Queue: 2 jobs
Job 1
Amino acid sequence: MTAVPGQRSTAAAGPAASERAAEEDLRALFGQSIAVFASLAGPAHVVETANPAFFATIGEERARVGVALAELMPELAGQGFIALLDQVFRTGEPYTGRDVQVMLGSGPQSREAFFDFTYEPRRDADGNVTGIRVLGVETTQVKHAQRLMAEHRGLLEQIARQAPLTEVLDGMARCIENLAPQEVLVSVLLADPDARHLRHGAAPSLPDFYNQAIDGIATGEGVGSCGTAAHRREPVIVTDIATDPFWDDFRGLADQAGLAACWSTPILARDGGLLGTFAMYHRIPRVPQDTDLALARLFAGTAALAIERHHIEQAKLAAEARAKSANDELAKVVRVERELRAEAEQRAAAAAELATQMRAAAAAQAATPHPEHCQLGGAAGCTAPAEIKIADSWGDAAWGCPAHVEEAILNVRSVFIASEELGGLTAYLNR
């Protein structure tokens, strides 16, 4: 694995150190603009002289003088800049452009840049225009920083309004891919609760087969860039997948997906717990610059905020669901308890009524001839005095003690208390 100068870890740093690190990241992202200067001669705008910043801007391979600007930078003609030079040379009126977009170079090496610039006519002793001075300040980094902060603010607003996590992470990945000066493919993996595996979170530009293949990879030393970064809790920079041993088990997959470099940054919670990983993939082997590392740290922090907010919301919903379930269960228990209490009260009332009837029957039947002992004891018999006569709908009758009479009335539906006046079928029909 290639070591990268300037890489730092702030996982264990205090608030002051974290604030300083954040300021350094902003300085790295916004950068310092450098003034470019060139002196052009004649109507053909031949480059007579230029400062190193000018040649660094257009590309050191084109650092030549004595050549017409249109020949040195043919891409300018189609963007209207040569026509503007012609106008200034013809009219003698200077021209100033603010935050103007320029495409420098051509093909895969072309890049978008922004400039504040002035075309100022050069004059001889007689006041005739002999050439043009070009003075400009590249504002590309400032422009990108403005776009970055606008996009970052939008992400924070999404998090604040509790947008779905997948929506936030997908938007973040696309934002970085659009802002990066060179092609980059962004991936966010989410850690399982046990921090032993990583799950797909967002990767809008990686092929589906690749996302599916790495979904659920283990965290551990040597498990690609992301598995290792998650295990170490620190960034892992693989500048060339084709030769790095961390990618031995995934090299064929990466080659199939057209990936040549992968820089992975762990996404950590405020307590240091693992939330996931933030990865930047490249089509060619690449060593990150300070701006790349700052961008990774900035958005890893944003992803951490979004994921922690999601976890808090999920825990809140789970707690509310448990509380609702407990309340529903409590309501069910209370309802059953009330039903049982009502049933018990009904039984108590019925038992009291039956006891009253039995006492009245025993008093009424006391003088009636009856056997000495209870006839309702079954095979075991009963030696208690017979006090109450009962009968059923078939005309059968027997005498029993209060306990056995109550038992018979409660357990045999057709049994009732008999009397001399109303016995047998008549008593049943008039009960």
Job 2
Amino acid sequence: MAKTHFTAPERTLLWLVAIGFFMQSLDGTIVNTALPAIAHSLNESPLRMQTAVVAYALTMAVVIPASGWLADRFGTRRIFMTAAVLFALGSLACALAPTLNMLIAARVLQGLGGALLLPVGRLAVLRSFPKDKFLEAMSFVAVPGLMGQLIGPTLGGILVEAVSWHWIFLINVPIGLVGAFAAKRLMPDLRDAKVGPLDGSGYLMLTVAMVCMSLSLDGLGGLGFQHVTVLVLLLAGLAGLTAYWLHANKVSQPLFSPHLFSVPSFRVGILGNLFARIGSGAMPYMIPLLMQLSMGYSPAQAGMLMLPMALASITIKPLATRLIHRYGYRYVLSVNTVVLGMLIMGFALMTPEQPLWLRIVQMALFGAVNSLQFTCMNTVTLKDLESHQASSGNSMLSMVQMLSMGMGVAVAAALIASFQQWLGVTEITGSANAFRGAFVCIGIVTVLSAWVFWQLEDDHAPGEPGDALAKKAIGPGEHDH
């Protein structure tokens, strides 16, 4: 395939959106390596700190459904600027937080900004680039976003040892302010003149559902809820989802139209994202904690060992498009999901005595497979949507991504707490076997989610010319990240 050439204005927009993606994804994981240090500073247990991670992801999941409507109503430029300012203010509040509860509140404010950076930036690209440039455009902006997510633990560990944990948040303040200024000058002011009113009732139902289901999972871990409370929250969440589905089928302009699920690739992609990302979301939280609490690594050492993931992720990126062209989404995603789950289970075998080269290879393999997973499943989700479905479908995908990331952390914390109780472990430093049990369980869930992707239509057509097969495999409306 010929390399796509972008004009100067197109490249400027891509860099602006890429910086926004980088900030949002960096802060989703930079806290993970610093959790033990933050816990010590705030006089909390490290295994209770996952609430600060879940609060950020959950806030993003709650706000994202309204992001498409806000961008259509007020314009991409104004919303992107507001998002950058909120992100900077929330970051400053996190650095100044004296208690865990204050940190959680500051993470919520930070999440409000982060929730708009990702989907609004992607929507600007979606509406600014023709279909023949879209895959390459989204691949361009996805790399910094993926880098932010994967180097976050590394940078967090280095900052904790070099200065203090406060700087993992303070570095966002100037970046956010510069981003807001750049957006005012460079972001196109795209909006939909025909946008209708926001579906407030549906938004409330969906918000209640997500918050209740996330709290039910988090309640099994750090929050320590009684089982009856967890059950009530879970049932309330399921009731909220049911109520929303019934509501969306009877109103003329729902937040997310049920007709989106009439597109087979979107239906499979959304469900696959939800379950497959639980494992991907749990790993940046679990691996640095295991290394520091049970294997004797310092924050900087644990962070540095995450670097092979980032490097492998970037290296494998160009391979994703070629694999899709050659084998189709169904085969690539099904096989890759199984491999991803097995690699997650492989982390249960980590011990302090293993050689460094083995750890580097393990991290690099996971980074490469995880990167390929992100690219393929996000692309297949949105590739067949019509132009009038793009904003809604884009927002739903972003919501599911953040919800599953928060669920991954909450599930990991709940599994660790359950295995600790089952094994009779009370000391944090002796929780290695609890971590191992959690890795195996999460890996199994990831492997089983391959069945979701197997429901895709077989888009592999052996013997077809490359251009014809690429056209079938990629299709219109390509997305990544």
